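INFO batch 0412 | record 1 of 1 | parsing
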Amino acid sequence: MTKRSAETGGKRGKQAKKFVEQQNTAIELALSVASVQESKAQEKVEKRRQSLSAAKSKEDHKKNSSKSSSKDKLKEKKAVIAAQKAQSKKQKAKARKETKGHGAGGHGGMEKGMDVTTRQKDTLPVRKRVSFA
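INFO prediction complete | emitting tokens
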């Protein structure tokens, strides 16, 4: 124990480490780091503002432009095709009704006294029976 106390010079307790000789230098370093970080943050904010304003002006330009985009044209074409399909479907249904009405009965409606179940059985296709012998 005497050997250790002799080497340390008799000082006891933990000593503070000194990384910089002068405190002013440490403060200047901290200020410079803070200013760099602040400038980076300001640049990010400015970029974000510019991108938002550019996107906004682009949207306004799209709304005001007389040209319709390809997506709008595609939507219009799809709507036209859907309308045509619906129209052809209606025509087919109408044709089916006409052929049913003018078929065997003659006037389109069911005759009086005819049972509904027998009418449905007549219109159903005949099932083929299979036997496994």
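INFO post-check: The chain is about 65% helix and 0% strand.
INFO record closed
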